[in-house]
Amino acid sequence: MSTSGMIDVLPLSPLQEGLFFQHLYHRDGPDVYVTQLVLDLSGDLDRALLRRSWDAVLTRHPHLGAAFVYEGLDRPVQILSRGVVTPWRETDLTGTGEDLDAAMTQELDADRTRRFVAAEPPLIRLLLARTGPARHRLAITSHHILMDGWSVPILVRELLTLYAAGGDPAALPPPVPYRAYLAWLAGRDTEAAATAWRAALSGVDEPTLVAAAGTPPATPRQTGTLLGAEHTEALARLARSLGVTLSDVVQSAWGVVLGALTGRDDVVFGVVTAGRPAEIAGIDELPGLFINTVPVRVRLSPQTMLSEVPARLRGQRLDLEPHEFLSLAEIQAAAGVGELFDTVVVFENYPSGELGADAGGLRLTGVHGTDATHYPLMLAVVPGDRLRLRLDHAPGQPAGDVLAALVSVLRTMTVEPDRRLGTVDPFGGQGRRLLEERNDTAHPVPQTGLTGYLEQALRRFGADVAVICGDQRLTYAELDRRSEALAGELARRGAGPERAVGLHVSRSAALVVALLAIVRSGAAYLPLDPQYPAERLRYMIDQARPVLVLTDGEPPDGAPVLHLADVAVAGRAPAPADDPASIASIIFTSGSTGAPKGVAGTRAGLLNRLAWFAELQPFTGNEALLAKSSISFIDGTVEILQTLVHGGRVVMADAATAVDMTALADLVARHEVRVLTAVPSLLLALLDEASAGPPGRLSSLRLVLSSGEPMPVELPARLAVESPDARLVNFCGCTEVSSESLFAFCDVYDRSIGTPLWNNRAYVLDAALRPVPEGVAGDLYYGGVGVGRGYMRRPGATAERFVADPFGPPGARMFRTGDRVAYRQDGKLVHLGRSDAQVKVRGVRIEPSEVEAALTRHPAVAAAAVAVRRPPGGDPLLVGYVTPATGAVPDPADLRRYVATLLPPALVPSVLAVLDRLPRTPNGKVDRRALPEPAPGTTVVSAPAGPREQVLCELFAEVLGLPAVGPADDFFGLGGHSLLATRLIARIRSALGIEVTLRSLFETPTPAGLAARLGEAGGDPLDVLLPLRSVSGRPPLFCFHPAGGFSWCYTGLLRQLPADQPVFGLQARGLTDPARVADSADEMVAEYVDRIRGMGEPGPYSLLGWSLGGQLAHAAAARLQAEGDKPGLLVMLDSYPPETLPETPPLDRPEVLRLVLREYFGMEPPVGVPLDAAAVTALLRTAGVADLSEAHVEAVARILPAASAAARTYRPPVFDGDLLFFRATGGWSGPPPDPRAWQPYVTGEIEIHELDTTHGRMTRPAELAQISAVLRPRLPGTA
Question: PROSITE patterns this protein is in (predicted)?
Answer without folding.
Answer: AMP_BINDING, CARRIER, PHOSPHOPANTETHEINE
